[in-house]
Amino acid sequence: MINKSFKYRMYPTSSQEVLLSKTFGCVRVIWNACVESFNSYDKGLNPSPKIPCKSDLISNKPWLNEVSAATLQQKQRDFIEFSKQYFNKSRKKKINRPRFKSKDDHQSFRLPAQKFKLKDDKIRLEKIGYIKIVTDRTIPKNSRIISCTVSKDKSGRYFASIVVETEQVYKQKTGKSVGVDLGIKTLVALSDGATISNPHFLHKNQVKLVRMQQHMSRKQKGSNRRRKCKLKIAELHRKISDKRSFYMHNLTTMLVSNYDIICIEDLNTSGMLKNHNLASSISDASFSMFRSQLEYKCDWYGKELVVIDRFYPSSKTCSYCGWKNDDLKLSDRVFKCENCGIELDRDLNAAINIQRVGVDILSNRTQSSEVTSCGEAFRTT
Description:
Elements: E1 2-11, H1 14-40, H2 54-60, H3 69-87, E2 107-112, E3 116-119, E4 122-125, E5 129-134, E6 144-152, E7 158-166, E8 177-182, E9 186-190, E10 195-197, H4 201-204, H5 206-217, H6 224-258, E11 261-265, H7 269-272, H8 279-285, H9 287-301, E12 304-308, E13 334-336, E14 343-345, H10 346-380
Parallel strand pairs: 8-11, 11-12
Antiparallel strand pairs: 1-5, 1-7, 2-6, 3-4, 4-5, 6-7, 8-9, 9-10, 13-14
Helix pairs in contact: 1-3, 5-6, 6-9
């Protein structure tokens, strides 16, 4: 069993938009109260921050009763889970300290399965009512609904993301493995020689975006005209983000469908963004989105994703003889081996090395697991 998310567009009425805005605001108050308590606790006396009680908050702010109590309680549970992950020293990924949320940030709240209901092309939310949705994907019949997250983006669109627990569906095995090298000009270079160009969605709209931002800067702060200009800019960013996400989904689905073993590098994206000359291009390429989609899709469909060490010199090592060129520059797009004399594209050479190292890592991992299982069987007998 795996967890899957189904995201649907919502079309609330004007009165329902008011109720949704109230819910977003009340949930934001609960989160900010938890963050304030988190920042003020004494580490020496109290090992964990004290979460403020909902009844105490309601006594000081009675208008919190106007929204569903389940959303407020769920936000407190989310903060408790966040604080546990923050103080977990064995966590793999770095988690920043919680920060206060404003009404200009991404707005969302979550409901458990008992507090909402799906009926045909509508969703019923507690204290809000039935809201029209567009169901472009159907939830499997034997799935168990876990929760629903209602969100609003900066362009004014409403979404309902429903998380369900469903049976795992495996894709057909192909017996192929591939190494993937990510780049800026060529987004993806595969070890079998195929290349996928970078569409540069942000770069293509850069001139239009700058013109709109200049137009907004001439408007008076707080005026309706400035608000309308800001909304147009948000809509343009939304279109760019949607195009990029759609492109990445098609790319990652193609890789997962055609290959059983996918090998990639552990790129330090946050460190790469510190290069101000390439930060915009790296953000436009969305390396982190590419990896995250590959991770959960390989988990969904039973494929193997191997991540090799970020310090392995895949571009500087010859994929045929193993000779290493320490003087290779970023501007050198063709790899020339002084030992065996082969010449090939720099990205293709890196992709072949990534595939070879990834397959070796996977085979060593399989052998070690077999040895461990044999040892356990020997001890039991």
